């Protein structure tokens, strides 16, 4: 019995081997897990962190509206307004079998004025997750889309550019595309300035879509506003009068500029034909050109005051001098320069008053080409105006060495050079400001831009009074404005042909200053290719000037400086006067 109890226990065969095997396996598994964890956490954490972030991190853009463009008084010329855009998720549409409801898709297609098959074709690929159906719809259309309640069709808020003045300021302001990117005018030139930078919010969501962590938030950089020198009231007036004149004269096009003499600010810049940036259905490229700064013409007789000014500046003539224009014509190098009739001896004032080609030719021949070209250059011809608008032309002012006498003669009455409407306005603003040349600007100024004295104030004042006679008793009587003293000069030029020489088409111009006693504005009107017999500057362009100035003086509250020219009534009581 005792011997049996003391018998040694024997372990089953293979037990120890299985134990060590299990220990080794567990140790190996543990080692692999630790190594894998170390690889994920230390050696290569980025890829798995990215995968995790893709599942949980979300980011939202904090949009900003495009900056506004306003006139000098804060009236909106361009503004962004929130609108709805219709988009679809084709995968969600497929999951809900939404295409089976053909009536709703037909109604949606009719809302967008498109074919149902074309609309369905946009959303029949379930591999896509985002498709635009219609950008920037009207509020009524957006409301109807909501009522249709088609699975997978949604609305998102975007912004749409709206131009309250329509075609009136279109050439200055320009326009944007459907994505709000500038395409023309100031919208394009200052696109970055107007756009700003959207903000961004980054956060983490759990599996149930709840926000569990705010990661970061970047504040939006608000866009800046453009405040123009344009006075919307004067702009509207100028456009209305120009459009009527272009239609009445059956002209191809026309332009008008209104400048502030003291500051160089552009109060109005208009062209006809124009375009409505709110309606792109019939948008045509030729209507979008800002002709006031891009198209250049031979200025004709509008440069004659500069010839007189050059003669005064260079001491070749004095204000009271007399020039003999008999017999009313000159022959230079086999070519003829003539006036409509022989006017005999003319004072410098009468040379401008009667627009004598012979008179200014004799002055130019006495001056020589270099002083005359220098005067034109000082007046801003052949260079930019400083306004820095897209597409601005610099015209043509030749600097060749050799000039014939006839070429010098034609240069004195506005042929052989070309200027834009804006350049001509700048030249007259120098005369109006007493010989001070300053860059023009399209932005409102708190104080005048620095200027340069390029002409003697006494000489510019003398020329100003000479031009007053042109309006009061000369070729520009239709430019008169009741109650105000007006100075100006007409111009009528024939247009060159592409094949060389001059054709039968004309450009009618008038450039003027008001009022003479204390010049406030310069207005230049160009009527291109009038289709009637009244194609002269004094009959086609001068009346437009008169209408624009009359209303501009009222809008700017400029008191009359010629009260004897109009009947002034005192308001009485009870409606009596």
Automatic annotation (TrEMBL):
Q: Which UniProt keywords apply?
A: Carboxypeptidase, Cell cycle, Cell division, Cell inner membrane, Cell membrane, Cell shape, Cell wall biogenesis/degradation, Hydrolase, Membrane, Peptidoglycan synthesis, Protease, Septation, Transmembrane, Transmembrane helix
Instruction: Locate the active site.
Output: 301
> The organism sits in which domain of life?
Bacteria
Gene3D superfamilies in alphabetical order:
3.30.450.330, DD-peptidase/beta-lactamase superfamily, Penicillin-binding protein 2a (Domain 2)
Which residue range or ranges hold the Penicillin-binding protein dimerisation domain?
Answer: 63-215
Top-level EC class as recorded in UniProt: hydrolase
EC number in record: 3.4.16.4
What reaction(s) does this enzyme catalyze? Preferential cleavage: (Ac)2-L-Lys-D-Ala-|-D-Ala. Also transpeptidation of peptidyl-alanyl moieties that are N-acyl substituents of D-alanine
Where does the UniProt annotation locate this protein?
Membrane
Signal in keyword set: no
- Domain Penicillin-binding protein transpeptidase: residue ranges: 254-549
Q: What's this protein's function? A: Catalyzes cross-linking of the peptidoglycan cell wall at the division septum.
Q: Which family does it belong to?
A: Belongs to the transpeptidase family. FtsI subfamily.
PANTHER family per UniProt: PEPTIDOGLYCAN D,D-TRANSPEPTIDASE, PEPTIDOGLYCAN D,D-TRANSPEPTIDASE FTSI
What name goes with this protein? Peptidoglycan D,D-transpeptidase FtsI
Provenance organism: Idiomarina piscisalsi
Q: Which gene encodes it?
A: ftsI
């Amino acid at each position: 019995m005792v011997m049996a109890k003391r018998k040694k226990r024997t372990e089953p065969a293979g037990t120890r081997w299985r134990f060590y095997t299990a220990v080794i396996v567990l140790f190996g598994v543990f080692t692999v897990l630790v190594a894998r964890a170390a690889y994920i956490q230390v050696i290569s954490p980025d890829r798995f962190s990215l995968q995790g972030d893709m599942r949980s991190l979300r980011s939202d853009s904090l949009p900003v509206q495009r900056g506004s463009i306003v006139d000098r008084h804060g009236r909106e010329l361009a503004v962004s307004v929130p609108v709805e855009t219709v988009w679809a998720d084709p995968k969600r549409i497929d999951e809900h079998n939404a295409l089976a409801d053909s009536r709703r898709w037909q109604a949606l297609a009719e809302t967008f004025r498109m074919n149902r098959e074309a609309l369905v074709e946009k959303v029949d690929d379930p591999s896509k997750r985002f498709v635009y159906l219609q950008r920037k719809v009207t509020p009524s259309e957006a409301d109807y889309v909501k009522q249709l309640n088609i699975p997978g069709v949604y609305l998102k808020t975007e912004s749409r550019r709206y131009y309250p003045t329509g075609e009136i300021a279109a050439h200055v302001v320009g326009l944007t595309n459907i994505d709000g990117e500038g395409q023309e005018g100031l919208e394009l030139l200052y696109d970055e300035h107007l756009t700003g930078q959207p903000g961004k919010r980054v956060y983490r969501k759990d599996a149930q879509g709840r926000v569990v962590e705010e990661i970061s938030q970047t504040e939006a950089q608000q866009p800046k506003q453009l405040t123009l020198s344009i006075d919307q009231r004067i702009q509207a007036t100028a456009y209305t009068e120009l459009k009527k004149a272009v239609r009445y004269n059956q002209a191809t096009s026309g332009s008008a500029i209104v400048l502030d003499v003291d500051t160089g600010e552009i109060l109005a810049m208009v062209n006809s034909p124009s375009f409505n940036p709110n309606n792109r259905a019939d948008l045509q490229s030729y209507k979008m050109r800002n002709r006031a700064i891009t198209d250049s013409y031979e200025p004709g007789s509008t440069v004659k005051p500069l010839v007189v000014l050059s003669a005064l500046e260079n001491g070749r003539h004095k204000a009271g001098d007399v020039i003999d224009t008999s017999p009313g014509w000159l022959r230079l190098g086999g070519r003829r320069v003539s006036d409509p009739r022989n006017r005999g001896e003319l004072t410098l004032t009468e040379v401008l008053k009667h627009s004598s080609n012979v008179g200014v030719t004799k002055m130019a021949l006495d001056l020589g080409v270099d002083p005359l070209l220098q005067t034109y250059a000082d007046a801003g011809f052949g260079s930019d105006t400083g306004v820095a608008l897209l597409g601005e032309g610099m015209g043509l002012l030749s600097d060749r060495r050799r000039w014939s006498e006839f070429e010098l003669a034609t240069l004195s009455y506005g042929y052989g050079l070309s200027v834009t409407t804006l350049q001509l306005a700048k030249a007259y603003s120098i005369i109006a400001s007493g010989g001070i040349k300053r860059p023009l600007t399209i932005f409102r100024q708190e104080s005048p831009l620095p200027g340069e004295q390029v002409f003697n104030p006494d000489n510019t004042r003398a020329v100003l009074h000479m031009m007053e006679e042109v309006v009061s008793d000369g070729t520009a009587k239709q430019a008169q404005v009741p109650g105000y003293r007006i100075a100006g000069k007409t111009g009528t030029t024939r247009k060159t042909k592409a094949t060389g020489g001059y054709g039968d088409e004309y450009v009618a111009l008038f450039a003027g200053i008001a009022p003479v006693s204390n010049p406030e504005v310069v207005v230049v009107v160009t009527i291109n290719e009038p289709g009637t017999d009244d194609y002269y500057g004094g009959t086609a362009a001068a009346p437009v000037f008169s209408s624009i100035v009359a209303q501009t003086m009222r809008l700017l509250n400029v008191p009359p400086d010629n009260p004897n020219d109009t009947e002034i009534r005192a308001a009485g009581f009870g409606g009596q006067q």
